[in-house]
Amino acid sequence: MTDNKTKRVSAEQQIPTIIAEMRAAAAAFQKIGLGVSIFGSARIPRDHPFYAQGMELGARIAQLGLPVIAGGGPGLMEAANRGAFEAGGRSVGLNIRLPREKTDNPYQTDSLQFEYFNSRKASFFMHSLAYVVLPGGFGTLDELFEAITLVQTMKQPPAPIILVGKAFWSGLMEWVRDQLLTHGMIGPFDLDMLLVTDDLDEVVRLIQEAAQIEQQREPALPT
């Protein structure tokens, strides 16, 4: 058994911080507007082809006039932020302190700080009109499947969920079809929520279409 010295913090202790973090993010995004969330591994080095692809993607989204929202850490999060930042766009980092991620990347026009994943993930999904998923590990998979679940259950409006990298994602998609779909754990049309592509032109086109649809969407009535 590993020696895990993490102390349990009660829900009662966590909740005030979680609420405060979500409120701070909501206030910030009132000024920033809806953006495009880009998820991906923190462990990809700067000389990797995935990093160059993340930078290009961030730059191209910024050139559409849309904010890029990434995790604020290193790797592909940094690549997305950097691409947007160096293109002169809005580059938002949702930063969280982790053992492997002790500093925020420097390519952020707007930096939000989080203690908890609960509030950080909610802030991604409440303020995005599209989700782009670059190669990544458990954290990226967590974000991917939460995006799918929120759109599938209509807790969030329909939005493009785009997986970039056919070679990387093909095994996962084959498992989803062979296991989840075959056993009736998802519906036959649920896979239509996802696009797997290597074509950044296609990614940009879908994001642009989503932005146009969002402009036409009726604002939600206050409750």
UniProtKB/TrEMBL annotation:
This enzyme's EC code(s): 3.2.2.n1
The keyword Hydrolase appears for this protein: yes
Listed name of the protein: Cytokinin riboside 5'-monophosphate phosphoribohydrolase
Family listed: Belongs to the LOG family.
Database matches in Pfam families: Lysine_decarbox
Domain of life of the source: Bacteria
Keywords: Cytokinin biosynthesis, Hydrolase
Transmembrane feature ranges: none
InterPro entries per the UniProt record, alphabetical: LOG, LOG_fam, LOG_family_nucleotidases
Catalytic activity from the UniProt record: AMP + H2O = D-ribose 5-phosphate + adenine
Top-level EC class: hydrolase
